[in-house]
Automatic annotation (TrEMBL), chain B:
The keyword Signal does not apply. One of its GO terms (molecular function) is transmembrane transporter activity. It is a multi-pass membrane protein. The lineage of its organism: Bacteria, Pseudomonadati, Pseudomonadota, Betaproteobacteria, Burkholderiales. Belongs to the binding-protein-dependent transport system permease family. HisMQ subfamily. This is Amino acid ABC transporter membrane protein 1 (PAAT family). It comes from the Bacteria.
TrEMBL record, chains C, E:
InterPro entries: AAA+_ATPase, ABC_ATPase_HisP-typ, ABC_transporter-like_ATP-bd, ABC_transporter-like_CS, MetN_ABC_transporter-like, P-loop_NTPase. SUPFAM superfamilies: P-loop containing nucleoside triphosphate hydrolases. This is L-glutamate ABC transporter ATP-binding protein /L-aspartate ABC transporter ATP-binding protein. CDD domains: ABC_HisP_GlnQ. Pfam families: ABC_tran (PF00005). It is found in: Cell membrane. PROSITE patterns: ABC_TRANSPORTER_1, ABC_TRANSPORTER_2. It comes from the Bacteria. It is a peripheral membrane protein. Belongs to the ABC transporter superfamily. It comes from Pseudorhodoferax soli. One of its GO terms (cellular component) is plasma membrane. Its main location: membrane.
Automatic annotation (TrEMBL), chain D:
One of its GO terms (molecular function) is transmembrane transporter activity. It comes from the Bacteria. Signal peptide: none annotated. Residues 21-210 form the ABC transmembrane type-1 domain. It comes from Pseudorhodoferax soli. CDD domains: TM_PBP2. PANTHER family: GLUTAMATE_ASPARTATE IMPORT PERMEASE PROTEIN GLTK, MEMBRANE COMPONENT OF AMINO ACID ABC TRANSPORTER. This is Glutamate/aspartate import permease protein GltK. The keyword Signal does not apply. The complex is composed of two ATP-binding proteins (GltL), two transmembrane proteins (GltJ and GltK) and a solute-binding protein (GltI).
């Protein structure tokens, strides 16, 4: 297929926006309604694209999973994915990323009563992560490097992994901080859970688009930079992370991290590997 | 789709397996362990339940057997696995400490046992009624005519569906990835994601599944050949996944 | 006075709402050869199967050799082991060789040693003229041969009475003779036999009594062979009709 | 553990579950009809006695039958867009996958059904002068369908259960509906339990109907 | 000179390595009633099925009413529609009512109108005495009734010759008569018939020729009925043996 996404969406008058069913940055309310920090940001990007194209571009929401999002972007099913995808070097070989809009910190979530306070306390414990995410890889590497011996269980998705923690099958849930916060906040007893210890790794999250389409990437990046510059993205952050959100009207309660602030100050599309090297 | 990159199999995934290839082979091992253990459970439980359903003058047992079959075959396997993995331990806490492997084997085994029970019942009832009468007429007790007359023929007759059931159990074990068993499908999804080379990973896994299916098929064909009764011809059955 | 072997008294049986045996009474003495005939579905098979309790009855009583078949305390397997039975479709055990077919019940039911069972079984096999086939499987034999093996199987248990349910009606016409020959031999030796069959030639040759059952399971005739064939005027119209049909061609 | 189904009010059901339920049912119906149609064609190919028809059909059927459905779903999702040259959604992909996959299973059922018709029936049709086509459509296939109807419907029930696997590509089926509802309200246990009950009731009711039908057919024959 | 209806010339047939027909020659004239008999597995069914090419042959030729059955150019469905055939297991179409069984081939093969087909079919049904059952399904009829419907089905196609393959051997003894009666009627009206049967009564009554095939598919006898039954000394030993077996009881 052609690599000129701008021409394609202009011609068809619609864009396929990749969204997630249940991540902290993008999730569904049912009935084909998709919301979240990244989803709304994506909608604003499309609004900017519409303006540039001079005609209304309709959004087709296409829910993706962590297993299929890359092939879908590659094969043209999805034009722009604004879910919660880590920008890393391996992926950058197949797709390209917009500037980083959120920097995820991989953290440890545990029960407040567990006595786990940091990575070293995980020795001999059972740790939950989610199939098809890069956190598993991070964790695996850490494990080998530091000789830390813990058992690993993998949920098929984040809610599943959280359930492992909730039901006591796992002692900790290692994952992106936003996901941890969202899952804990939605649980029955949000106060039972706490995020502890050091940041295990830092992952830049960005919208994903097809490779080798510089014009489209520029249009997307420009829109994001505008949103950062005029403060609207910060308002969006406040709305989705610090205020009550649907469907249950609970707060995630996750203030903006230093890393995210830095990324906004200097918009860039550096992959995760560049962060680790720092 | 073009350019293959089979080198990915030699990359280091960073875990205990030095390469993706070795990881895939170990995943194959999990698939085989889950499938064979579940097959054992399914055969034992399925036979028992199947026999119960055909016992003469035992309406209680027949009803129990029927209930078993209906319960385990009318809920999707995936949902049953979730029930065993999430719901049962939530209601019955000690089940939390049972390793997922056992839970999956039980889930897959019981699910398949319902189907084997159904086949065995059909096999037994497809035998001419006269065979049962003949067994009774020479003075066999119920247990004896099952043991010496009915079951040997019934098992032979259901070997074809048992073959497809055994192949199914390998395929169905793929659902175990949903509860953290590091088997082939989980490998395909995880490794496809990590390497961004899903096609290569899927192909490798698919080939292993086909090999597994063929090996099981050959083993069952061998058993069928060994068990063949000279001069006896019977019609086979079909259906199901 | 002749020794009584089978007494069927006031027997009725229903399948659900359908009555298939209606107040049947039959007495069979030691050495009797009784032929049972009647139209299809009249209950012949059912009647003969009630004798060794393969089919339960709802009313009446049956006594075989002094033992109450319908008595709940009776050890049915033991009783059945003394009553030989031959079926329309042979019902050999297809997964066992001819020899195993002959010996398994002797060993497992009568508790005979394998050797003893084999000697006895092969003697019976020889008697039906099939010694050469002792290692074959049922599926490798013709229908007539299978039926003769089935008779040998029943005989190896040393039965005191033999029941036959249409033993020749599933056979090709050329094989009927070989089976009937064996049965005629048995009858001549004094075996007590109850035989459901349409082979009127056999009845003429060896039966000493003929019973006719009509649809609905009622016994319409129970008389000597001579009377049955020789005295058509004394017969019921249904019987005459039936005999006309099956003897016409 | 205290279970609380209180959050399952009508709006949750309409918002989350019904949409998935409709898709599951739609997928089942379409895949059954399509699967039987293509399955019958495959069965006829396999019984044609012509190698060039039989061999490809056999490879297709046996290939499909030795791969787990989840893998087939993932495969089609990956390659169908390449084959037809344009992107398709998860739902469309699931529909194509299920038709293609079920065709393999239905073809085996139809093949057994056709083979279960006594040779004498084939001869009887030929003997009154019917052509191959007439014999198939007037004599053999109607009987094969009738004899196999219970098996075909049982396969349909299995198919309905298997639709739960489309979550692997993110299509929104009934299980997904329950799961999403459970996640959003932090009540996954209750959701899974309820999903199991709903699946059981639906499938049990269907299999009860199949059994009734079976008895009816047995009487006609 | 009599008109030739069926000429079977030097016909041989193999199933894989097994020969089932061995150089068979039969000529059947218009109006002939030919009975074919022989032991089980001798190839009687195979022979009769080759006449309308239901079974292909590897050697020889068959001509029916002047048309070469083995000629690749022959329109076989058309030829078959003129040859009536009745099978051992009736082979009515179980999913169609009796009337539909009688009319479907008339409509689809002969192209008759539904009305015309029905008139013709019901006339034949009346002839076999089953008018009362016209709306039933085959499964609701007894075996004898089904076979009579099968004969009516064949007759509705206005066949020039009728083939029968053991038409009574799957029937209960009381039903054999009703089917044979219909066949005797047909024969008396001059229908050309080739009949595989063991019913020697039928052969005696209406056949004008009897053919005996031995295992391996060789025609051992082909002679007039009078010769076949009246002159045993002129028969082959195999034939005598067979006749002895099936006439013994
Ligand atoms: N298991 C059963 N359930 C219901 N009805 C039955 C059953 N077995 C037999 N019957 C009915 O009981 C009646 C008598 O059957 P039975 O087999 O004794 O007849 P039969 O005289 O032996 O007939 P045949 O000559 O066909 O063998 C028939 O009407 C039959 O349909
Ligand atoms: N489809 C087949 N494949 C292989 N062998 C066959 C086939 N059909 C028939 N035969 C063999 O051909 C021989 C002749 O069969 P055929 O049915 O013509 O015999 P028959 O004389 O009609 O016997 P019966 O009296 O049992 O009907 C038998 O040995 C049979 O086993
Ligand atoms: Mg009977
Ligand atoms: Mg024949």
């Amino acid at each position: 297929q052609s690599n000129d996404t701008l021409a394609k969406i202009k011609a068809s008058g619609s864009i396929s926006l990749g969204v997630r069913d249940s991540s902290a940055l993008s999730y569904t309310l049912g009935n084909g309604k998709y919301v979240g920090f990244h989803t709304e940001m994506g909608e604003r990007i499309v609004a900017d694209l519409s303006k540039a194209a001079g005609k209304e571009i309709k959004i087709q929401y296409t829910p993706v999973t962590s297993q299929n999002r890359i092939p879908l972007v590659q094969n043209g099913t999805v034009d722009l994915e604004c879910g919660s995808t880590t920008n890393n070097a391996t992926r950058a070989k197949d797709v390209s990323f917009a500037v980083t809009t959120y920097v995820e910190e991989v953290r440890i979530l545990t029960k407040a009563s567990s006595g786990i306070n940091g990575i070293s306390d995980l020795k001999g414990k059972t740790v939950a992560t989610t199939t098809g995410t890069t956190s598993v890889q991070t964790l695996r590497r850490n494990k080998r490097a530091e000789g830390l011996d813990f058992k690993e269980v993998m949920g098929k998705d984040h809610a599943d992994s959280f359930l492992l923690l909730e039901s006591g099958r796992a002692d900790a849930f290692v994952m992106d901080g936003s996901i941890l916060a969202a899952n804990a906040s939605k649980s029955r007893n949000a106060a039972d859970y706490k995020m502890v210890g050091e940041v295990l790794s830092v992952e830049p999250i960005a919208c994903m688009l097809r490779k080798d389409d510089p014009a489209f990437k520029k249009a997307v990046d420009d829109s994001i930079k505008r949103q950062i510059a005029d403060g609207s993205l910060a308002k969006l952050y406040d709305k989705w992370f610090l205020q009550p959100i649907p469907p249950t009207n609970t707060k995630i309660g996750l203030p903006m991290s230093e890393a995210t602030k830095q990324a906004w100050a200097n918009p860039n599309d550096k992959p995760m590997e560049d962060y680790a090297a720092k | 789709m073009g350019n293959w990159d089979w080198q990915v199999y030699l990359q280091d995934p960073g875990g205990k397996d030095p390469t993706y290839l070795q990881w895939m082979l170990s995943a194959w091992g999990w698939t085989i362990s889950v499938a064979l253990s579940a097959l054992l459970v399914a055969l034992v439980v399925g036979s028992l339940v199947g026999i119960l359903r055909t016992l003469p003058n035992s309406p209680g047992w027949v009803r129990f057997g029927n209930a078993w079959v209906e319960l385990f075959r009318n809920i999707p396997l995936l949902v049953q696995i979730f029930l065993w993995y999430h719901v049962v331990p939530a209601i019955f806490t000690p089940a939390r400490d049972v390793p997922p492997f056992i839970l999956v084997v039980l889930a897959l085994g019981f699910f398949t046992s319902a189907r084997i029970a159904e086949q065995l019942r059909a096999g037994i009832q497809a035998l001419p009624r006269g065979q049962r009468y003949a067994g009774m007429a020479v003075g066999f007790t119920t247990w004896q005519y099952y043991r010496y007359v009915i079951l040997p023929m019934a098992y032979r007759m259901i070997l074809p569906p048992l073959t497809s059931e055994s192949m199914n159990i390998f395929k169905n074990s793929s659902v175990a990835f949903a509860v953290s068993i590091a088997e082939l499908t989980q490998f395909a999804m995880q490794a496809g994601e990590e390497t961004a080379r899903p096609i290569e990973m899927y192909l490798g896994v698919t080939v292993l599944y086909i090999i597994s299916a063929m090996v099981i098929n050959r083993i069952m064909a061998f058993i069928e050949k060994r068990a063949r009764v000279p001069g006896f011809v019977a019609a086979g059955g079909t259906g199901g996944h | 006075m002749a020794e009584q072997m089978i007494q069927i008294k006031d027997v009725s049986k229903w399948y659900g709402p359908v009555q298939v045996l209606n107040n049947c009474n039959v007495n069979i003495n030691k050495g009797d050869v009784v032929v049972v005939c009647g139209p299809s579905g009249s209950g012949k098979s059912t009647l003969i199967k009630t004798v060794n309790a393969l089919e339960p009855i709802q009313k009446g009583s049956i006594v075989v050799n002094g033992i109450g078949v319908t008595d709940p305390k009776t050890d049915l397997p033991k009783l059945r082991s003394k009553v030989g039975m031959v079926f329309q479709h042979f019902e050999l055990f297809p997964h066992l060789s001819v020899t195993e077919n002959l010996t398994i019940a002797q060993i497992k039911v009568l508790g005979r040693s394998a050797d003893e069972a084999k000697t006895r079984g092969l003697k019976m096999l020889d008697r039906v003229g099939l010694m050469a086939h002792k290692d074959k499987f049922p599926g490798q034999l013709s229908g007539g041969q299978q039926q003769r093996v089935a008779i040998a199987r029943a005989l190896s248990m040393d039965p005191i009475v033999m029941l036959f349910d249409e033993p020749t009606s599933a056979l090709d016409p050329e094989m009927v003779g070989e089976v009937l020959d064996v049965m005629v031999g048995l009858a001549k030796e004094g075996m007590t036999m109850m035989v459901v069959t349409h082979e009127m030639g056999f009845a003429r040759k060896v039966a000493n009594r003929v019973i006719f059952i009509d649809v609905g399971g009622r016994i319409l005739e129970d008389c000597s062979k001579e009377d049955f064939f020789g005295n058509p005027d004394a017969r019921q119209p249904r019987t005459k009709d039936f005999l006309n049909k099956i003897l016409q061609h | 553990m205290n279970l609380d189904f209180g959050f399952y009010n009508w709006s949750v059901i309409t918002d989350f579950v019904l949409k998935g339920f409709y898709f599951s049912v739609f997928l089942t119906v379409v895949a059954t009809l399509g699967g039987i149609f293509f399955g019958t064609l495959l069965a006829l190919m396999r019984l044609s006695g012509k190698k060039w028809l039989d061999t490809p059909a056999a490879i297709y059927v046996n290939g499909m039958r030795s791969i787990p459905l989840v893998m087939v779903i993932l495969w089609f999702f990956l390659i169908v867009p390449f084959l037809i040259g344009r992107p398709i959604g998860a739902e469309m992909s699931a529909i194509i996958t299920f038709i293609a996959f079920e065709a393999a299973y239905f073809s085996e059922i139809m093949r057994a059904g056709i083979q279960s018709i006594p040779r004498g029936q084939v001869f009887a049709g030929m003997a009154v002068g019917m052509s191959y086509r007439q014999n198939m459509t007037l004599v053999i296939l109607p009987q094969a369908f009738r004899n196999m109807l219970p098996v075909l419907l049982t396969q349909t029930i299995i198919l309905f259960q298997d639709t739960s696997l489309v979550y692997a590509i993110g299509a929104y089926d009934m299980l997904k509906g329950f799961e999403t509802a459970g996640k959003n309200f932090g009540r996954p246990i209750e959701s899974y339990l309820l999903a199991a009950v709903v699946y059981f009731v639906l499938c049990y009711a269907l299999s009860w109907l199949v059994k009734r039908l079976h008895k009816k057919i047995a009487i006609i024959r």
